[in-house]
């Protein structure tokens, strides 16, 4: 069973190490110590906890109704406009998402670097790599 340090868990959950430490101190996620005294979280416990906090996260009342279930709220970090197409990058926690869309869509949405946006992913082909 793979275990994660508090820092690794924080990166995977998209929160600060202090937040992850507070959750562990409060007993929200179980930890154990390794031989060096570091606190570790079992992979299965971290996976279950990540689902729990995602389901309990308050929804934005302005959320659109959509069939795309994989939503990544974040901040726009780059907008590259072409004559017809555009490329928009969003940093959502530890995830960098890049979308190719029409220039017209970018202009209609008023997308600019520094603004909040949500990338929604719906795909028939998702690749998973083991780390």
What does this structure look like?
The longest helix is centred in the middle third of the chain and has 14 residues, at 43-56. This protein is 29% helix and 33% strand. By secondary structure, it is α+β, with helices and mostly antiparallel strands. α1 packs across α2. A hairpin with a 3-residue loop joins β4 (70-81) and β5 (85-92). The protein has a 4-stranded antiparallel sheet. Strands 1-3-2 form a 3-stranded antiparallel sheet. It is elongated, with a radius of gyration of 18 Å.
Order of helices and strands: EHHEEHEEEHE
Helix/sheet category = alpha+beta
Strand order of the largest sheet: 6-5-4-7
> Distance between termini?
14 Å
Q: Strand fraction band?
A: 25-35%
Distinct helical segment count = 4
Radius of gyration: 18 Å
Measured as a percent range, the helix fraction is 25-40%
